[in-house]
Amino acid sequence: MSAGSSIPVDPMTPPRPRAPHFDPVKNAWVLSRYPDVWAALREPHLWPVGGKRQIQPETRDEAGRLKQRAEMLDALSASRLEEWRPRLEALTHSALDSLPTNRPVDLFAEFTLPWGLALAILVTGADPADSPRLADLGRRVFAATGAESADTDLRADAAAATAELERIFATGPIPMGEPAFVALSQTLPRLLANAWLALVRHPDEFARLRAQPELMPGAIEELLRYAGIVRRVFRRATANVDLGGVRIAEGELVMLMLASANRDPEQFPDPDRLLLARPVTSHVALGTGRNSCVGAMLIRMAASVATGALTARFAEASFSRVIEWRTGSGFCFPASVYVTLR
Ligand code: HEM
User: Fold this and answer.
1) 250 domain residue, yes or no
2) Which atom of ligand 1 is nearest to the CA of 284?
3) What is the pTM of this model?
4) pLDDT value for 1
Protein backbone atom coordinates (compact mmCIF):
# COMPACT_ATOMS: atom_id res chain seq x y z
CA MET A 1 0.00 0.00 0.00
CA SER A 2 1.30 3.48 -0.77
CA ALA A 3 1.42 6.30 1.77
CA GLY A 4 -1.07 8.13 -0.42
CA SER A 5 -3.79 5.50 -0.22
CA SER A 6 -6.54 5.28 2.37
CA ILE A 7 -7.19 2.26 4.56
CA PRO A 8 -10.73 1.24 5.43
CA VAL A 9 -10.38 0.29 9.10
CA ASP A 10 -9.70 2.93 11.70
CA PRO A 11 -6.10 2.11 12.57
CA MET A 12 -6.17 4.35 15.63
CA THR A 13 -6.97 1.16 17.52
CA PRO A 14 -3.74 -0.85 17.47
CA PRO A 15 -3.63 -4.65 17.77
CA ARG A 16 -4.27 -5.92 21.31
CA PRO A 17 -1.12 -6.75 23.27
CA ARG A 18 -0.18 -10.41 23.47
CA ALA A 19 2.63 -12.54 24.85
CA PRO A 20 6.02 -12.17 23.13
CA HIS A 21 6.22 -14.23 19.95
CA PHE A 22 8.49 -14.64 16.95
CA ASP A 23 7.03 -13.45 13.62
CA PRO A 24 8.67 -15.58 10.89
CA VAL A 25 7.51 -13.20 8.13
CA LYS A 26 9.10 -10.15 9.73
CA ASN A 27 11.89 -12.37 11.04
CA ALA A 28 11.60 -10.54 14.35
CA TRP A 29 10.36 -10.93 17.90
CA VAL A 30 7.20 -8.96 18.58
CA LEU A 31 6.75 -7.42 22.02
CA SER A 32 3.46 -5.65 22.66
CA ARG A 33 2.46 -6.01 26.34
CA TYR A 34 3.20 -2.88 28.34
CA PRO A 35 5.67 -4.45 30.84
CA ASP A 36 7.58 -6.21 28.03
CA VAL A 37 7.87 -3.06 25.90
CA TRP A 38 8.82 -0.98 28.94
CA ALA A 39 11.54 -3.47 29.95
CA ALA A 40 12.84 -3.76 26.37
CA LEU A 41 13.14 0.04 26.00
CA ARG A 42 15.31 0.03 29.11
CA GLU A 43 17.37 -3.05 28.21
CA PRO A 44 20.95 -2.01 27.33
CA HIS A 45 21.49 -5.08 25.15
CA LEU A 46 18.66 -4.12 22.81
CA TRP A 47 20.15 -1.54 20.46
CA PRO A 48 17.96 0.87 18.44
CA VAL A 49 17.97 0.20 14.69
CA GLY A 50 15.92 1.49 11.79
CA GLY A 51 14.12 4.78 11.48
CA LYS A 52 15.84 8.14 11.54
CA ARG A 53 15.89 9.07 15.19
CA GLN A 54 18.88 7.08 16.24
CA ILE A 55 22.12 8.53 17.43
CA GLN A 56 25.10 6.65 15.91
CA PRO A 57 23.53 3.20 16.24
CA GLU A 58 25.72 1.37 13.74
CA THR A 59 29.01 2.36 15.31
CA ARG A 60 27.60 1.67 18.80
CA ASP A 61 29.61 4.60 20.04
CA GLU A 62 27.79 4.86 23.37
CA ALA A 63 29.98 7.68 24.70
CA GLY A 64 29.46 9.74 21.52
CA ARG A 65 25.72 9.07 21.59
CA LEU A 66 25.40 10.15 25.20
CA LYS A 67 27.41 13.32 24.55
CA GLN A 68 25.22 14.27 21.60
CA ARG A 69 22.09 13.46 23.61
CA ALA A 70 23.27 15.62 26.53
CA GLU A 71 24.06 18.54 24.19
CA MET A 72 20.64 18.35 22.65
CA LEU A 73 18.88 18.10 26.03
CA ASP A 74 20.85 21.15 27.11
CA ALA A 75 19.76 23.09 24.02
CA LEU A 76 16.13 22.16 24.79
CA SER A 77 16.33 22.82 28.54
CA ALA A 78 13.42 23.97 30.72
CA SER A 79 14.74 27.54 30.71
CA ARG A 80 14.91 27.62 26.89
CA LEU A 81 11.36 26.30 26.76
CA GLU A 82 10.18 29.11 29.04
CA GLU A 83 11.87 31.62 26.71
CA TRP A 84 10.00 30.20 23.71
CA ARG A 85 6.65 29.76 25.43
CA PRO A 86 5.34 33.39 25.25
CA ARG A 87 6.26 33.66 21.57
CA LEU A 88 4.63 30.33 20.86
CA GLU A 89 1.51 31.41 22.76
CA ALA A 90 1.28 34.62 20.75
CA LEU A 91 1.64 32.92 17.37
CA THR A 92 -0.75 30.12 18.41
CA HIS A 93 -3.51 32.54 19.44
CA SER A 94 -3.24 34.66 16.31
CA ALA A 95 -3.26 31.56 14.05
CA LEU A 96 -6.35 30.15 15.81
CA ASP A 97 -8.11 33.51 15.69
CA SER A 98 -7.73 33.58 11.92
CA LEU A 99 -9.42 30.16 11.42
CA PRO A 100 -12.85 30.55 9.80
CA THR A 101 -16.00 29.39 11.64
CA ASN A 102 -18.33 29.48 8.63
CA ARG A 103 -16.93 26.38 6.90
CA PRO A 104 -15.19 23.12 7.84
CA VAL A 105 -11.50 23.66 8.55
CA ASP A 106 -8.73 21.10 8.06
CA LEU A 107 -6.95 21.45 11.40
CA PHE A 108 -3.87 19.72 9.97
CA ALA A 109 -3.29 21.73 6.77
CA GLU A 110 -4.70 25.00 8.05
CA PHE A 111 -3.37 25.02 11.58
CA THR A 112 -0.99 22.35 12.90
CA LEU A 113 1.28 22.25 9.81
CA PRO A 114 1.95 26.03 9.55
CA TRP A 115 2.06 26.22 13.37
CA GLY A 116 4.73 23.46 13.52
CA LEU A 117 6.77 25.27 10.87
CA ALA A 118 6.64 28.51 12.87
CA LEU A 119 7.74 26.60 16.02
CA ALA A 120 10.56 24.86 14.12
CA ILE A 121 11.80 28.23 12.86
CA LEU A 122 11.63 29.69 16.37
CA VAL A 123 13.57 26.79 17.94
CA THR A 124 16.23 26.43 15.22
CA GLY A 125 16.74 30.19 14.89
CA ALA A 126 16.13 30.02 11.14
CA ASP A 127 15.26 33.13 9.13
CA PRO A 128 11.43 33.38 8.88
CA ALA A 129 11.92 34.78 5.36
CA ASP A 130 13.17 31.28 4.41
CA SER A 131 9.88 29.64 5.53
CA PRO A 132 8.65 28.50 2.09
CA ARG A 133 11.98 26.90 1.17
CA LEU A 134 12.41 25.26 4.59
CA ALA A 135 8.81 23.98 4.51
CA ASP A 136 9.46 22.38 1.13
CA LEU A 137 12.70 20.73 2.32
CA GLY A 138 10.99 19.37 5.46
CA ARG A 139 8.11 18.00 3.38
CA ARG A 140 10.54 16.21 1.05
CA VAL A 141 12.46 14.63 3.95
CA PHE A 142 9.27 13.45 5.66
CA ALA A 143 7.85 12.05 2.39
CA ALA A 144 10.46 9.27 2.52
CA THR A 145 9.11 8.02 5.87
CA GLY A 146 5.85 6.98 4.16
CA ALA A 147 4.88 3.46 3.20
CA GLU A 148 6.23 4.14 -0.28
CA SER A 149 9.71 4.75 1.17
CA ALA A 150 11.10 1.92 -0.98
CA ASP A 151 10.65 4.33 -3.94
CA THR A 152 14.26 5.10 -4.86
CA ASP A 153 13.49 8.49 -6.49
CA LEU A 154 11.68 9.58 -3.34
CA ARG A 155 14.57 8.43 -1.17
CA ALA A 156 17.14 10.18 -3.34
CA ASP A 157 15.10 13.38 -3.20
CA ALA A 158 14.78 13.07 0.60
CA ALA A 159 18.54 12.52 0.90
CA ALA A 160 19.20 15.68 -1.13
CA ALA A 161 16.73 17.66 1.01
CA THR A 162 18.32 16.27 4.21
CA ALA A 163 21.79 17.32 3.02
CA GLU A 164 20.47 20.80 2.24
CA LEU A 165 18.87 21.14 5.69
CA GLU A 166 22.05 19.86 7.36
CA ARG A 167 24.00 22.55 5.52
CA ILE A 168 21.50 25.25 6.57
CA PHE A 169 21.51 24.18 10.24
CA ALA A 170 25.22 23.33 10.53
CA THR A 171 25.82 26.49 12.56
CA GLY A 172 22.44 26.92 14.25
CA PRO A 173 21.77 27.35 18.00
CA ILE A 174 20.79 23.71 18.56
CA PRO A 175 22.76 20.56 17.72
CA MET A 176 21.15 18.18 15.22
CA GLY A 177 19.16 21.07 13.73
CA GLU A 178 18.09 19.04 10.71
CA PRO A 179 16.24 16.20 12.53
CA ALA A 180 14.90 18.70 15.07
CA PHE A 181 13.53 20.89 12.27
CA VAL A 182 11.88 17.94 10.52
CA ALA A 183 10.43 16.57 13.79
CA LEU A 184 8.97 19.95 14.76
CA SER A 185 7.70 20.99 11.34
CA GLN A 186 6.48 17.57 10.13
CA THR A 187 6.11 14.99 12.94
CA LEU A 188 4.71 17.26 15.65
CA PRO A 189 1.91 18.68 13.41
CA ARG A 190 0.79 15.11 12.68
CA LEU A 191 0.91 14.14 16.34
CA LEU A 192 -1.15 17.20 17.27
CA ALA A 193 -3.63 16.55 14.44
CA ASN A 194 -4.11 13.00 15.71
CA ALA A 195 -4.47 14.19 19.31
CA TRP A 196 -7.04 16.80 18.29
CA LEU A 197 -8.91 14.26 16.20
CA ALA A 198 -9.21 12.17 19.40
CA LEU A 199 -10.40 15.21 21.31
CA VAL A 200 -12.97 16.15 18.67
CA ARG A 201 -14.27 12.57 18.68
CA HIS A 202 -14.80 12.84 22.45
CA PRO A 203 -16.91 16.03 22.81
CA ASP A 204 -17.43 15.48 26.55
CA GLU A 205 -13.68 15.41 27.09
CA PHE A 206 -13.27 18.53 24.92
CA ALA A 207 -15.84 20.32 27.10
CA ARG A 208 -14.21 19.02 30.28
CA LEU A 209 -10.81 20.40 29.28
CA ARG A 210 -12.36 23.74 28.33
CA ALA A 211 -14.05 23.92 31.75
CA GLN A 212 -11.03 22.64 33.70
CA PRO A 213 -7.83 23.85 32.00
CA GLU A 214 -5.92 22.76 35.12
CA LEU A 215 -6.31 19.20 33.80
CA MET A 216 -3.91 20.06 30.96
CA PRO A 217 -0.68 18.32 32.09
CA GLY A 218 -2.45 14.99 32.63
CA ALA A 219 -4.59 15.53 29.53
CA ILE A 220 -1.48 15.85 27.34
CA GLU A 221 -0.15 12.56 28.74
CA GLU A 222 -3.49 10.87 28.01
CA LEU A 223 -3.56 12.33 24.48
CA LEU A 224 -0.02 11.04 23.91
CA ARG A 225 -1.00 7.60 25.22
CA TYR A 226 -4.19 7.41 23.20
CA ALA A 227 -3.13 9.18 20.00
CA GLY A 228 0.65 8.73 19.76
CA ILE A 229 1.65 8.36 16.12
CA VAL A 230 4.71 6.08 16.47
CA ARG A 231 3.35 2.56 16.18
CA ARG A 232 6.56 0.62 16.65
CA VAL A 233 10.34 0.90 16.99
CA PHE A 234 13.03 -1.70 16.33
CA ARG A 235 15.89 -3.12 18.36
CA ARG A 236 18.74 -5.56 17.61
CA ALA A 237 19.98 -7.80 20.44
CA THR A 238 23.70 -7.30 21.14
CA ALA A 239 23.69 -10.25 23.59
CA ASN A 240 21.21 -12.95 24.61
CA VAL A 241 18.32 -11.26 26.43
CA ASP A 242 15.66 -12.98 28.59
CA LEU A 243 12.51 -10.91 28.53
CA GLY A 244 8.78 -11.58 29.01
CA GLY A 245 9.35 -15.33 29.25
CA VAL A 246 11.33 -15.72 26.01
CA ARG A 247 15.01 -15.74 25.12
CA ILE A 248 16.01 -13.26 22.41
CA ALA A 249 19.28 -14.46 20.94
CA GLU A 250 22.17 -12.16 20.14
CA GLY A 251 21.73 -10.68 16.67
CA GLU A 252 17.95 -11.12 16.54
CA LEU A 253 15.60 -8.31 15.62
CA VAL A 254 12.84 -7.12 17.98
CA MET A 255 9.74 -5.03 17.23
CA LEU A 256 8.46 -2.98 20.15
CA MET A 257 4.80 -2.17 19.59
CA LEU A 258 4.49 1.16 21.38
CA ALA A 259 0.87 1.85 20.40
CA SER A 260 -0.30 -1.61 21.52
CA ALA A 261 1.53 -1.25 24.84
CA ASN A 262 -0.21 2.09 25.35
CA ARG A 263 -3.57 0.30 25.03
CA ASP A 264 -2.67 -2.59 27.37
CA PRO A 265 -5.78 -3.07 29.57
CA GLU A 266 -3.63 -4.45 32.41
CA GLN A 267 -1.86 -1.09 32.59
CA PHE A 268 -4.60 1.28 31.40
CA PRO A 269 -8.12 0.11 32.34
CA ASP A 270 -10.67 0.75 29.56
CA PRO A 271 -7.74 1.54 27.24
CA ASP A 272 -9.74 2.49 24.13
CA ARG A 273 -11.42 5.38 25.90
CA LEU A 274 -9.86 8.80 26.02
CA LEU A 275 -10.12 9.83 29.67
CA LEU A 276 -8.32 13.11 30.22
CA ALA A 277 -8.62 12.86 34.00
CA ARG A 278 -7.19 9.32 34.00
CA PRO A 279 -4.61 8.89 36.78
CA VAL A 280 -1.29 9.60 35.09
CA THR A 281 0.80 6.52 34.42
CA SER A 282 3.81 6.47 32.12
CA HIS A 283 2.99 5.76 28.49
CA VAL A 284 5.64 4.88 25.90
CA ALA A 285 4.53 7.21 23.07
CA LEU A 286 7.91 8.99 23.25
CA GLY A 287 9.90 5.92 24.30
CA THR A 288 11.50 5.66 27.73
CA GLY A 289 14.96 5.21 29.18
CA ARG A 290 18.26 5.58 27.41
CA ASN A 291 16.83 6.30 23.94
CA SER A 292 13.73 8.23 24.95
CA CYS A 293 12.76 11.23 22.85
CA VAL A 294 14.95 14.25 23.60
CA GLY A 295 12.19 16.50 22.27
CA ALA A 296 9.72 15.22 24.90
CA MET A 297 9.63 18.32 27.12
CA LEU A 298 9.33 20.59 24.11
CA ILE A 299 6.55 18.45 22.65
CA ARG A 300 4.64 18.56 25.95
CA MET A 301 5.02 22.32 26.26
CA ALA A 302 4.03 22.99 22.64
CA ALA A 303 1.07 20.59 22.72
CA SER A 304 -0.17 22.14 26.00
CA VAL A 305 0.03 25.67 24.60
CA ALA A 306 -1.81 24.73 21.40
CA THR A 307 -4.45 22.51 23.03
CA GLY A 308 -5.10 25.07 25.77
CA ALA A 309 -5.55 27.79 23.14
CA LEU A 310 -7.87 25.59 21.05
CA THR A 311 -10.20 24.71 23.92
CA ALA A 312 -10.18 28.27 25.28
CA ARG A 313 -10.94 29.81 21.87
CA PHE A 314 -13.66 27.39 20.69
CA ALA A 315 -16.56 25.96 22.71
CA GLU A 316 -17.11 23.17 20.23
CA ALA A 317 -15.37 21.40 17.39
CA SER A 318 -17.57 19.01 15.45
CA PHE A 319 -16.01 16.44 13.21
CA SER A 320 -17.18 16.76 9.63
CA ARG A 321 -15.52 14.32 7.20
CA VAL A 322 -14.39 10.73 6.78
CA ILE A 323 -10.77 10.30 7.77
CA GLU A 324 -8.11 9.13 5.42
CA TRP A 325 -5.14 7.58 7.22
CA ARG A 326 -1.47 7.61 6.32
CA THR A 327 0.88 4.87 7.43
CA GLY A 328 4.51 4.00 6.93
CA SER A 329 7.81 3.58 8.76
CA GLY A 330 5.97 2.86 11.99
CA PHE A 331 3.87 6.04 11.81
CA CYS A 332 0.08 6.25 11.62
CA PHE A 333 -1.80 9.55 11.43
CA PRO A 334 -4.79 11.18 9.70
CA ALA A 335 -4.19 12.96 6.38
CA SER A 336 -6.68 15.65 7.35
CA VAL A 337 -8.93 16.52 10.29
CA TYR A 338 -11.92 18.47 9.01
CA VAL A 339 -13.97 20.09 11.77
CA THR A 340 -16.46 22.87 12.15
CA LEU A 341 -15.40 25.24 14.93
CA ARG A 342 -17.80 27.28 17.04
C1 HEM B 1 6.10 15.11 18.02
C2 HEM B 1 6.81 14.37 17.42
C3 HEM B 1 7.75 13.33 17.96
C4 HEM B 1 7.48 12.03 18.25
C5 HEM B 1 6.14 11.33 18.12
C6 HEM B 1 8.74 11.44 18.69
C7 HEM B 1 8.87 10.15 19.11
C8 HEM B 1 10.05 9.56 19.51
C9 HEM B 1 10.19 8.21 19.98
C10 HEM B 1 9.07 7.20 20.14
C11 HEM B 1 11.49 8.01 20.27
C12 HEM B 1 12.11 6.73 20.85
C13 HEM B 1 12.66 5.90 19.73
C14 HEM B 1 13.16 4.56 20.21
O15 HEM B 1 13.06 4.22 21.40
O16 HEM B 1 13.66 3.80 19.35
C17 HEM B 1 12.20 9.24 19.95
C18 HEM B 1 13.56 9.41 20.07
C19 HEM B 1 14.20 10.58 19.73
N20 HEM B 1 13.61 11.79 19.43
FE21 HEM B 1 11.65 12.14 19.19
N22 HEM B 1 9.71 12.40 18.69
C23 HEM B 1 9.15 13.57 18.26
C24 HEM B 1 9.76 14.80 18.18
C25 HEM B 1 11.08 15.02 18.41
C26 HEM B 1 11.71 16.31 18.41
C27 HEM B 1 10.97 17.64 18.24
C28 HEM B 1 13.03 16.09 18.59
C29 HEM B 1 14.13 17.09 18.68
C30 HEM B 1 14.00 18.36 18.80
C31 HEM B 1 13.23 14.66 18.72
C32 HEM B 1 14.44 14.05 18.89
C33 HEM B 1 14.59 12.70 19.18
C34 HEM B 1 15.90 12.06 19.31
C35 HEM B 1 17.25 12.72 19.10
C36 HEM B 1 15.64 10.72 19.67
C37 HEM B 1 16.68 9.63 19.92
C38 HEM B 1 17.19 9.71 21.31
C39 HEM B 1 18.31 8.71 21.59
O40 HEM B 1 18.47 7.73 20.85
O41 HEM B 1 19.03 8.95 22.56
N42 HEM B 1 12.03 14.06 18.63
N43 HEM B 1 11.29 10.17 19.52
Assistant:
1) yes
2) 10
3) 0.93
4) 32
